[in-house]
Amino acid sequence: MRVAGCDPGTSALDILVLDGGAVADQVRFTPAELRADPAAPVGWHAARGPFDLIAAPSGYGLPLVPAAAATDAQLELLSLRRPDDRGGGVAGFSAVARAFRDSGLPAVFLPGVVHLPTVPAHRKVNRI
Questions:
Q1: How far apart are CA 50 and CA 3, in angstroms?
Q2: Nearest one of 34, 100, 113 to 70, comparing CA atoms
Q3: What confidence tens digit (pLDDT) does each residue in 39-48 have?
Q4: Could you tell me which residues come within 8 angstroms of residue 99 by beta carbon, excluding any fewer than 6 positions away?
Q5: Disulfide engineering: 95 pairs with which of 2, 16, 38, 65, CB 3.0-4.6 Å?
Q6: Helix (H, G, I), strand (E, B) or coil at 3
Q7: Distance (Å, rounded) from C-alpha 111 to C-alpha 115?
Q8: Is residue 88 very low, low, confident or very high in pLDDT (cuts 50, 70, 90)?
Q9: Which residues neighbour 72 within 8 Å (Cβ) at sequence distance 6 or greater?
Q10: Tens of pLDDT, residues 28-74
Q11: Judging by beta carbons within 10 Å of its beta carbon (0-12, 13-18, 19+), is residue 117 exposed, middle or buried?
């Protein structure tokens, strides 16, 4: 099984590929690289595929949803994009998420802690 996971952080987007459970590849995209080309991570995956599954960068999370099925409203939620924010959400994250949605790759957006029933409510305090 060949899978990849994307971890969006404050200073970079990291991607790790596992092939049969062993690390096969990894890369880091800086904010400047993502601003210049929000689809760069999609192109990176496409050049290294095929993949059985990709955990797309999920920001603040959604209930588990295939990337291809994500609506614009859901993408705004996972990026905390306000209706009056024309800048693309947190650091342009919406454009990266949209690139995954539109890519045709076998990607999913993962839940955030707020979506997990196993995490007690007192640990889900909104601090944003």
A1: 9
A2: 100
A3: 999 999 999 9
A4: 38, 39, 41, 42
A5: 38
A6: strand
A7: 6
A8: very low
A9: none
A10: 999 889 989 999 999 999 999 999 999 999 877 888 899 999 998 88
A11: exposed
